[in-house]
């Protein structure tokens, strides 16, 4: 079975609408799919309807922002009740914070003689077919900067203005681990730590994070994120078993022009890890 449990649509910072994303996932041979937009549930109904019509097994999904010891983390939530009001409300609070961040990014760019950034980023979202319930993310600002002639390409936008430590890297106060995971679990969901390798932690610090994640109610870790190097997958698989986690995998798809994050294209799943989709709670 081919599972792809990490992908993004126009509901957050992807470039394909939820239905087209599901069609492409099916064409790529995906059997089990989850749409995991950033702090956003807007695309879930459309994704579910399309995925099921194409014969794929679908589970509800989201990528939640959280804070741990001053660092931003991402938590993948699966198989939750879309009608759980406390969970929906918790996501709504984070969405308001994302809107404030977008406004701050626009203000900072305007101070650098790049006015109209918020309107431009919203236009990028609209052109991609997004319903503008969700705030524009940094990739939307980057694409606007390219179209407005401020930078040559998206890579330059992040390198000079939007990347880590740059002007547009607004530090948002996300919920703590327990605050993010609690409402998800109350909604019947399963929490998985997204792309553990990408945080750049030392091995000792990563172990402390996994210990705290388990204590907060985390159930699994993403051992395969796109076409990740084999040695990274092997190490994460080892940690997965050591801490008693279930293992997940996903392409982390955002854009079809990123071949290393293509739908259904991932490094091999570790044979000695137990996949998250065998968990009765995940499969309910």
From TrEMBL:
It holds the Pfam family PHP. Residues 3-68 form the Polymerase/histidinol phosphatase N-terminal domain. GO terms for molecular function: 5'-3' DNA exonuclease activity; 5'-3' RNA exonuclease activity. SUPFAM superfamilies: PHP domain-like. InterPro entries: PHP_dom, PHP_domain, Pol/His_phosphatase_N, Pol/histidinol_Pase-like. SMART domains: POLIIIAc. This is Polymerase/histidinol phosphatase N-terminal domain-containing protein. It comes from marine sediment metagenome.
């Amino acid at each position: 079975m081919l599972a792809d449990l990490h992908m993004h649509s126009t509901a957050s910072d992807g470039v394909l609408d939820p239905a087209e994303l599901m069609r492409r996932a099916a064409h790529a041979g995906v059997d089990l799919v989850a749409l995991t937009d950033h702090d956003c549930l807007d695309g879930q109904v459309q994704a579910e309807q399309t995925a099921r019509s194409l014969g794929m097994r679908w589970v509800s999904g989201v990528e939640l922002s959280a804070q741990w010891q001053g660092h931003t983390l991402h938590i993948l939530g699966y198989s939750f009740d879309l009608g759980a009001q406390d969970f929906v409300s918790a996501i709504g609070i984070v969405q308001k914070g994302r809107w404030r961040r977008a406004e701050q990014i626009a203000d900072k760019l305007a101070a650098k003689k790049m006015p109209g950034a918020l309107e431009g980023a919203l236009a990028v979202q609209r052109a991609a077919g997004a319903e503008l319930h969700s705030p524009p993310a940094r990739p939307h600002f980057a694409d606007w900067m390219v179209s407005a002639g401020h930078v040559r390409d998206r890579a330059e936008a992040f390198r000079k203005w939007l990347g880590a430590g740059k002007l547009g890297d607004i530090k948002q106060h996300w919920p703590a681990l327990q605050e993010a995971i609690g409402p998800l679990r109350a909604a019947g969901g399963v929490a998985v730590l997204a792309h553990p390798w990408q945080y750049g932690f030392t091995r000792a610090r990563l172990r402390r994070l996994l210990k705290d994640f388990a204590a907060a109610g985390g159930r699994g870790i993403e051992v395969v994120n796109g076409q990740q190097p084999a040695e990274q997958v092997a190490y994460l698989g080892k940690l997965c078993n050591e801490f008693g986690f279930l293992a997940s995998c996903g392409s982390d798809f955002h854009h079809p022009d990123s071949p290393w994050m293509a739908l259904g294209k991932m490094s091999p799943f570790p044979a000695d890890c137990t996949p998250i989709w065998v968990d009765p709670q995940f499969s309910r």
